[in-house]
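Minutes, methods subgroup
Present: GH (chair), OT, SY

1. OT presented the first of two proteins processed in the latest run. Sequence and structure tokens recorded below as shown on screen.
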Amino acid sequence: MKSRCEKRGFYFTSINEKADVYVINGCCVTSRAAYETRLLAKKAFQNNKQAKVIVCGCPSYMQREREMLKEIGVHFILGHSYKHEIPDFILRALNGESGVFADEGSKSYVDESVLCRFGNRARAFCKIEEGCNFHCTFCILPMVRGKERSKSIENVLKEIRCLVTSGHKEIVLTGTNIGSYRFGFKKLLKLVEQMDGEFRIRISSIEPVYIDDSLTDILKESKKIVNHMHIPLQSGSERILKLMGRPYRKEDYYDIAWRLSKLGIALGTDVIVGFPTETDEDFEETRAFIENLPLQYAHVFVYSRRENTPAASLKGEVNGRIAKERSRIIRRIIASKNYAFRKSLEGKKVEIITEPTEVLINGKVYRKGVSKEYVSVLVPSSIPPYEKIEVKISHADYSFTFAELSQ
């Protein structure tokens, strides 16, 4: 959207500054995400009471979210396919128009546009797929993002080539469920591997059902794919996994995690606690299972009830206080694993890509970089951004990982 607007001559500023029009790419996958979308809309009006505000994406398909956004004063609420018309909607808003454009057909839109620059980031995101055909009982993604559809393999390769030519040193393959890529996810990885250029590829998140021996072989032999995978778990309780409608057993996940870990691949995951009917025994099963997984990090969520999902009708809601305590317990375990993982890197050489981001710690400025293992590494600020360099991890404390240029 930003690229299209820039081509039409629009000038960009921060959400924290006064603007004529604010465009918010919203989310409602969790109640927290929906709340934050509304919060941004309110903030826009606080910055400029006369501003025009446009919200795009998932919230447009939820009746309750639409109503609350309209109450705030949002001018246009747009479904996915209308994002490519955003410059026109900005002009329409400035001319006093408003409305909701979120028909069912807009959820089947395939964006075949080719992005050649991803803002001022060193790492660029390339969306290869949208939508999901899974039926997880807690998830509204199939309702708000539609059925699976994929960008053509020709345009994916063209976009990667264009992004690399523009100077991006890492390309992150993204999508709602990228393992289901229609034209063959493993075929795509092999074609990317054959491309010229010094860049690396990261798989953003992939469901465990897509990780088989042939994918493992690709990861093992690749010179471009980084040694990091994000594989959602959601629960370590067999009973809760079935209630969630997840298409695998915990034993399957365990085997995959340890097989990849032995290849030197750092692992991240997603965990949901407080799912309806989750007992103390279920949670203990999850806690013990996570303790035994080789994880580098995890995103831990308290179950968020989303209307019109099968899980929303389940009886046996978990007390909010109990759910939050379970979340704290898992987060403590993950924090300990993350610290141990980063400590294990001390004295080792790792490849990082430096970013524009600078961090101030105890009066000293550091440059942030991201390693292949998906570890945020702090290096001297004198090192310029957008560089792919080798550094030596000098020290890891409980909050940060520090490194110096490798000699």
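2. SY then presented the second protein from the same run.
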Amino acid sequence: MKIVSWNVNGFRAALKNGFLDWFDATQPDLLSLQEVRAEWEELDFDVRNELTRRHDVCWFPAKSKKGYSGSATLSRQGLGFTHTKGVGIDAYDIEGRLVVSESAGFTFLAGYFPNASSELVRLPYKRAFAQDVARIVRERHARGEKLVVTGDLNVAPEEIDLAHPKANRTTAGFTDAEREDFRGYLDAGLRDVFRERHPGEAGLYTWWTARGAARVKNVGWRIDIFLVSEGLVPNVGDARIHPEQRGSDHCPISLELVL
């Protein structure tokens, strides 16, 4: 199973930057998109037809503000996934944060995790979200389920995961509180398989600011991450980031899972 996650930073903008060509070439079995920022009905018929030709689509835009946030999960037809928009918590679901996809004891929890924002004004919201995600993971593990959690997690877990850690100790995405909440995911029984396969390797990033030619200089952050249940780790065939793919300020990440 080929699983891909990408924060497209506006789906209509991504379309103009060759998204459909990338989609056709990549052929994911499961695909999570974040910051879609568009209603399904706003997309051209031909685009919707292309997305649904081989995949079931669960499109989950934000209802709190037009053109904001939103996520989507696409699963290849025949894989038997059922999709649920949201996790039943209005504060997150109104912003289109998470799609829950399930098939035969396997859960794919994917979407756009909150940003703490400038001056950390949304840090309490983000921390509550992270703690609820960890609780959901623990509950599903207790029922014997196995999960893949992915998306734009909006946190760089360790100093190696961003180019300038010392200058960003109090910046959204690298505060002690956010990194503590990330460790809560690991304590709930998830593993950061990409980092485990690249220990000590710097310069592996998934997001770059548009300022100062950061992407050209590779001054970035690793904030798009796959987290995998302990019991699924032996089934992971490969885990990669794809910085060569343009079309957003984030790059896609991929995970191969043998089920």
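Chair's summary of item 2: The first helix runs from residue 11 to 16.
Next meeting: continue with the remaining queue.
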